[in-house]
Amino acid sequence: MKTHFSIVVWMLVVSMAMKMVIFAGNLQFTGYERIYFFGNLFVIMIGVFLGIRLFKEMSETKTGFIADVKAGIKVVGMYAVLMSLFVYVYYTFIDPNYFPTKIDSQMAALESSGRATGNELVKSRETAQVILAPYFQSTITLILYLLLGAFYSSLITFFVRKVRNEA
Question: Is residue 41 in some structural domain?
Fold first, then answer.
């Protein structure tokens, strides 16, 4: 891969393909959702590593720790913005019934457990409708991917520098 953007494009292709396979197989409410979640974390780690590696290859001089971290964050930043856009589009247009179905199943479980009744169920549903909405989920996706990306970038930079015996 020759640019940081090409790394991001491949990350997006893999992440979107995983999500669409789960949607096409009607596996949204199964354990495969966890595979998608952890798969995206793995995609972020690989993207950060490839971004740092590309930065080091393109640099003519020895790079510093902060510059390497920034190279990893650069990849994750682009990926996070584009994935949050995809999350919004996915839950708004591709699978608009996902959140209402999830809310209904959670409310049924809450009601059958006996932990909430009447007014508490109404308040719980209102809270769930705010949290389980495309805009809120895309915002959370953006924030969490940026935070995880910064953490992974620091961690992977540390390990890359250790393996290469850089100070």
Answer: yes
